[in-house]
From TrEMBL:
Residues 5-178 form the Pua-like domain. It comes from Shewanella nanhaiensis. Residues 204-452 form the Calcineurin-like phosphoesterase domain. This is Metallophosphoesterase. The keyword Cytoplasm does not apply.
C-alpha cells in the first residue's frame, strides 16, 4: 500500500473504547459496517483526493487507517466503498449496519468497512509521510508545513486540528523533524505569519538602535565582568522581567542592532536576545526585527576615490547582508527573503488582534559622509508585503495594524549636518509609503534611526491633492524611539537611552516610555502616550 488515508476519531458519542467495539461488532454480525465522517468546521469533502484514489468505485484490498486521538491507538480498516454526494449531508444507507448513535446524524461522507483491527503505531510512525491535501480545507491552511514530512509521533497527529490525512510510504528525501504545536505557535519557518499567535500577555517591549559593538559606541557593558556597568541584557531583564506579572509577550527591535554590520557585532546582539528569551521562556519566533542603516552597507571609506568605487561598495553591502542574514536565520530558522521584510500576527491579552509589518528601509547602499542614512522602501517590497500579509482585503475593524521600519517618515530632529552634494530627506519614497499606509489603514508607524523620541498623528486620505467627500480619512500615529544602547554622546534631544513597553489594554493602547541606564536596572523619566483603538 502506497497512498491511503488516515482518519481521526474520538469517543465523544459513546464511552471510552466503544467506537471501535460497536463498529467491529456489526462487522462480525453483518459482514460490514458504515462509519460516518465527523468533519470539522473548516473542512470540506475532499473530492479531488477521493477521485485521485478511486474511492467511488467498488474496492478490493484497499485499507485505510483510523487514529484514536485520545488513546493514541491506531487501527486498520478494509474499505469496500464510500458514499457521498458533492458535500451534501446524507443519512446512512442501512440502520442495521450502523451503530445506533448515528441514527439522528447526517454526514458528508460514509465509509463502508469490512473489518477493523488494531495495529502497532510503528506501522505508521516513522514509516509513513504526509501528502498534500489542500482540497480538505475551506480557507488557506497552515498544514502545508507537514507536506512531504515523516509522521513523527501520535502527539504530532493529535495536535493538528483536522480529521483526515493523506499518507504514503516515506521516501529518503522526506523531512524527519517533529512538529509540536503545543510548544510552538509558528512551527514552520515563515517570514510572514499566516495565523495569529495567541497569548494572555498584553505587551510588546520595543527597543531600537542598541548599536552593539566593541568600538566604544555602546553605552552598556558587553560582559558581566565590568564592576561599574551592567550589560543591556541585565538592565532590560531587571527592569521589565523581574516580576512574574511582567506581561511582555515579545521583543520588537526597529533596526541598528550593530555599529558597522560586522559578524562579531551581530554575535553581541544575538547574545542579548538569547539572554532575554532564555531567562523568560519566550519563543524566539515571536521576535520582530527590521534592519537599520548600520546593519546593512554602512561604508567606512574616507577618501573620494574609495567612495566612488562601486565594486568596494557592493562588496561591503554583500558582506553586511550576509552577516545580517546569518543573524536572522539563527532566530527564524530561515534565510531572509530578498526584501528582508517580514510580518507578525499576535492575539494579545487573549482577545486583541495585532498585525505588525516590518519593512526594510535600507535598500540603498550607504557611503559615509556622502550618502549616509537615507532610507528607501520601494514599490516591489510594498507589493510583496501586501500580498504576503493579505492586506488587499478589507481590514477587520478590531485589528490594530502597525508598520515598523528603521528610517523616519517625518523629520524628528531640530536640524541635521550638511554635506556638499548630499540630498536630504526622510525615506526617499515617503509619500508612496504614506499612501500605502493610508490605503491599508495602518494605525501606527514605529521607527528609530535618529536616536530621538517623537510622536505625531497624521490624518489624511490616500490622495491628498484631491477632495473625496465620501472618503473616510485614516489616522496614523507616528512614533519614534531613542536609542536603547548607543553611547550618550550620540543620543538625541531626549538625551540618554530609552525603551518602550507597548501595552494593549481592553480600553486603550499605551506606550510607556522610560529611560534606562547601565548603572542599574531602574526606569526613570517615564511618560505614557495613550491611544484609542480604531473605529
Amino acid at each position: 500500500m502506497d497512498v491511503t488515508l488516515l482518519f481521526r476519531f474520538r469517543d465523544l458519542s459513546c464511552p471510552s473504547g466503544e467506537t471501535i467495539k460497536r463498529h467491529q461488532a456489526i462487522c462480525d454480525q453483518k459482514d460490514f459496517v458504515w462509519w460516518g465522517w465527523w468533519n470539522k468546521g473548516h473542512e470540506k469533502l475532499p473530492t479531488e483526493t477521493i477521485q485521485e484514489l478511486g474511492l467511488h468505485k467498488e474496492l478490493t484490498d484497499f485499507f485505510v487507517y483510523l487514529f484514536d486521538s485520545a488513546s493514541k491507538k491506531f487501527y486498520q480498516a478494509e474499505l469496500l466503498k464510500i458514499k457521498s454526494n458533492l458535500g451534501e449531508k446524507l443519512k446512512t444507507d442501512s440502520l442495521e449496519h450502523t451503530p445506533s448513535y448515528y441514527v439522528e446524524n447526517s454526514h458528508q461522507l460514509w465509509l463502508k468497512f469490512k473489518k477493523i483491527a488494531e495495529v502497532e503505531e510503528n506501522e505508521i510512525i516513522g514509516l509513513k509521510s504526509y501528502e498534500p491535501m489542500n482540497d480538505l480545507f475551506l480557507p488557506d491552511s497552515h498544514f502545508d508545513m507537514y507536506d512531504n514530512k515523516v509522521v513523527s509521533s501520535p502527539e504530532e497527529l493529535a495536535e493538528q486540528n483536522r480529521t483526515i490525512w493523506k499518507i504514503r510510504d516515506k521516501k529518503e528525501t522526506d523531512k524527519t523533524n517533529e512538529i509540536r504545536l503545543k510548544f510552538l505557535t509558528e512551527v514552520q519557518p515563515r517570514h510572514f505569519d499566516r495565523s495569529y499567535r495567541a497569548t494572555s500577555r498584553n505587551s510588546i517591549l520595543w527597543l531600537s538602535d542598541p548599536h552593539f559593538t566593541n568600538d566604544g559606541f555602546h553605552e552598556f557593558a558587553l560582559n558581566d565582568d565590568n564592576p561599574n556597568l551592567l550589560t543591556l541584557s541585565k538592565v532590560i531583564d531587571g527592569a521589565y522581567f523581574k516580576s512574574d506579572t511582567h506581561q511582555i509577550a515579545s521583543l520588537l527591535i526597529s533596526g541598528d542592532l550593530t555599529w558597522k554590520g560586522l559578524e562579531n557585532e551581530f554575535k553581541l546582539a544575538s547574545k542579548f536576545i538569547d539572554y532575554i528569551h532564555s531567562m523568560n521562556s519566550m519563543d524566539k519566533s515571536w521576535l520582530s526585527i527590521c534592519p537599520g542603516n548600520h546593519d546593512l552597507s554602512f561604508y567606512e571609506g574616507a577618501d573620494d576615490a574609495i567612495k566612488n568605487n562601486d565594486k568596494a561598495i557592493k562588496e561591503n553591502y554583500a558582506r553586511t547582508r550576509q552577516c545580517y542574514g546569518d543573524f536572522y536565520s539563527k532566530f527564524f530558522d530561515i534565510n531572509p527573503n530578498k526584501s528582508m521584510a517580514s510580518g507578525r500576527r499576535f492575539l494579545l491579552n487573549d482577545t486583541i488582534p495585532v498585525e505588525i509589518v516590518l519593512l526594510n528601509s535600507v535598500t540603498l547602499q550607504q557611503t559615509k559622509d556622502s550618502f549616509q542614512g537615507h532610507g528607501f522602501i520601494g514599490s516591489e517590497q510594498l507589493t510583496e508585503v501586501e500580498n504576503r500579509m493579505g492586506l488587499s482585503t478589507s481590514k477587520p475593524r478590531n485589528v490594530t495594524r502597525i508598520c515598523v521600519m528603521h528610517h523616519h517618515l517625518l523629520p524628528v530632529s531640530l536640524t541635521q549636518d550638511a554635506y556638499e552634494d548630499a540630498k536630504y530627506s526622510t525615506v526617499l519614497d515617503a509619500e508612496r509609503l504614506s499612501r500605502w499606509l493610508t490605503t491599508h489603514k495602518f494605525d501606527f508607524l514605529l521607527h528609530g534611526h535618529m536616536h530621538q523620541n517623537f510622536n505625531c498623528t497624521i490624518e489624511r486620505g490616500v490622495i491628498t491633492h484631491e477632495v473625496n467627500p465620501n472618503e473616510k480619512k485614516n489616522k496614523l500615529h507616528v512614533l519614534s524611539l531613542g536609542s536603547s544602547g548607543v553611547c550618550s554622546s550620540h543620543t538625541g534631544e531626549a538625551n540618554g537611552n530609552w525603551a518602550c513597553r507597548i501595552a494593549f489594554g481592553h480600553d486603550k493602547i499605551r506606550f510607556h516610555y522610560a529611560k534606562i541606564s547601565p548603572k542599574d536596572a531602574n526606569l526613570t523619566g517615564e511618560y505614557t502616550l495613550e491611544f484609542d483603538y480604531n473605529d
